[in-house]
Amino acid sequence: MITSDLTDFPERVTGAASLRPGVMRPAITRLVLTGFRNYPTLRLALDPAPVVLTGLNGAGKTNLLEAVSMLAPGRGLRGARLGEMDRLAPGEEIRAAGGGWAVAATVETADGPVEVGTGLAGGGLERERRIVRVDGRNSSAAELGRRWSVLWVTPAMDRLFVEGAGNRRRFFDRLVYGLDPDHAGRIAAYEQAMRERARLLRDGRRDPAWLGTLEATMAAKGVAIAAARLGFASQLKSVLAAGGHGFPKARIAIEGEVEAALAGQPALAVEDGLARRLAENRGVDAETGTTRAGVHRTDLAVTHEGNGMPAARCSTGEQKALLLALVLAVARLKRTVEGSAPILLLDEVAAHLDAERRDALYDVLVSLGAQAWLTGTDRPLFAGLGGGRAQFVRITDASAIRDQIVDPAGTSLPAADDHDRG
């Protein structure tokens, strides 16, 4: 087992009793992995400050972020199936019977510490399913979303503005989850009804009553989804308009037929209209295998306010900056509305920013009081988080070693390097 503790960090807070008002909540202060990706076991003790993970490519930095992302609803930052996160020893093709990954953590919140665990159950002939426990009792992933939110930026999102609408829509919906946890349930119900409707049409089973019930569900949930998106976008626009913080101003717009209809009609009228269009489209939907009407076709349009350019036509660097501007604006919004920022997972973002924007990013993270997890191969990229502003963890061969902290002036702080390998 790999362990790391804070015995050499007397000035740092290590528990709920030490957390001062306004200081980094929620924050993970204990993280335990079992059989997750390339980690056989890992035990990491932390304080609420930002966490910098450094190490060679392939060491397991992103895997560690993915484990943290599983402390929120959904399929994590990779969108992987549950079984794909299971650890395989070299040469293995399937996991051993009775195996299954697990992630456990202590999360410090404004209401005190919360013990949470999640992992994989089932497999083989049994259907894989995710289990969640909160403070020792069986729970659900949805409850995690009601207690805290986790947002992330990964290299896979670098083409968010130039690829299809689906990724942008899912990205925006994840942002909405942060202030409206029930949004995830609405989307799940909508998509379940849409899949069932598509199956009936594909199989030629066009029972009007059955299809009408599914279409009514899609219409009701769809209007609720569209309204939540528009409400959140309105709040976010006010934060984005303030700009500053070293990142470009972004202008956003929600482009979808249901969202547009809500701008000029009562919700019930929009709901009736969507149900009617779905019924009218049964024939063409059956032929094409698609669903031509609904909130699953909505897009997020992002524009660089400074030059008026759509994000898709901006440079790669500006697209990354716009993406970060959106996520940081959501974090500021959540802090304003609820008094706490989300946990932020920023995978390999520093290497794509110039020095000025890196420093601006670090300043924003510290001012937000957010426990941000950042990864990178080069320690010097994080010099702006020196001087005790962050904690540094070196990842080597699926091991986490609390590193010596050196601030930009070269002052060495005590290292907590008491780890064991077992």
Descriptive notes:
It is a single chain. This protein is globular. The strands form 3 sheets. It has a 6-stranded antiparallel beta sheet, covered by helices on one side. The chain has a 6-stranded mixed beta sheet with strand order 8-12-13-3-14-15, sandwiched between helices. Strands 9-10-11 form a 3-stranded antiparallel beta sheet. β4 and β5 form a beta hairpin. α4 (182-202) packs antiparallel against α5 (208-242). Residues 1-23, 93-98 and 404-422 have low confidence and may be disordered. The N and C termini lie close together (5 Å). Helix content is 35%, strand content 21%. The protein has helices at 61-69, 141-147, 165-177, 182-202, 208-242, 257-262, 267-280, 282-288, 316-338, 355-368, and strands at residues 27-36, 39-45, 51-54, 102-109, 112-123, 126-134, 137-138, 150-153, 250-255, 299-304, 309-310, 343-347, 372-376, 391-396, 399-402. With 422 residues, it is an alpha/beta fold. It is built from 10 helices and 15 strands.
SSE arrangement:
Blueprint lengths: L26 E10 L2 E7 L5 E4 L6 H9 L32 E8 L2 E12 L2 E9 L2 E2 L2 H7 L2 E4 L11 H13 L4 H21 L5 H35 L7 E6 L1 H6 L4 H14 L1 H7 L10 E6 L4 E2 L5 H23 L4 E5 L7 H14 L3 E5 L14 E6 L2 E4 L20
Parallel strand pairs: 3-13, 3-14, 8-12, 12-13
Antiparallel strand pairs: 1-2, 1-4, 4-5, 5-6, 6-7, 9-10, 10-11, 14-15
